[in-house]
Specification:
By secondary structure, the chain is α/β, with parallel strands linked by helices. The protein is 36% helix and 27% strand. A 6-stranded mixed beta sheet has the order 2-1-3-8-7-6, with helices on both faces. It has a 4-stranded antiparallel beta sheet with strand order 10-11-9-12, with helices on one face. A hairpin with a 2-residue loop joins strand 7 and strand 8.
Length: 257
Amino acid sequence: MNEAGPAPAMVSACVLIIGNEILSGRTQDANLAFLAQGLNEVGIRLREARVIPDDAQIIISTVNEARGKFDYVFTTGGIGPTHDDITALSIAQAFGVPLVLHPEAKRILESHYPPGGLNEARLRMAQVPEGATLLPNPISRAPGFRVDNVFVLPGVPQIMQAIFNELKHRLKGGAKIFSRSVSCTLGEGTIAKDLAALQERYGDLEIGSYPYFRRSDFGVTLVVRGTEQERIAAAVAELKALIRTLGGDPQEGLAED
């Protein structure tokens, strides 16, 4: 995944959030937005995200589907020490390899816990699919792992973020994504027809419409995304002109996405 050469126009990713606690509403996911932003920073487009239960067959089938469809797959959750942490075994089964005790992962855990502290439950966190590459964990030490294009991360946000920050700059991204936003106090219904025509003229860009409601007013923020800043600038100029034509006052922002 790290071969030298020109960056492709787009590199895609999928995030699989694994956990019954997310689906039940007991725990709110805090990982998706972080991963989406971090991937954008290195030129990788998050194209899909799914929340799935702690069910081995669902994990296996979803991982196998996603790893064939996207350049990168990131999973969160299910690699702790308890009986319901079945992600590592499920990933092994998805790739058709055994789950093995990784000697380096065991050594890391042995150095982290006091003598006698590495019990059978904690040792589960040193088990990875055969052939997996460890992903260093600077906080609680129990590593994540990678098999081919699938990166398996813990669900605890602070730990997941630390592991991802360690690995993200080794990922091979595509073209940088830029965005410019234009806000106005027009309703979406007022601008929808002209906005659709603008999108047709700029098929290489993504133009999103996001309404907002405040105490004093309402309106819409229109975001233009793409890899070529000149094309974005041209689209934004037309967008601002059509807003004025419809009686609005465009207010612009500029950022890397």
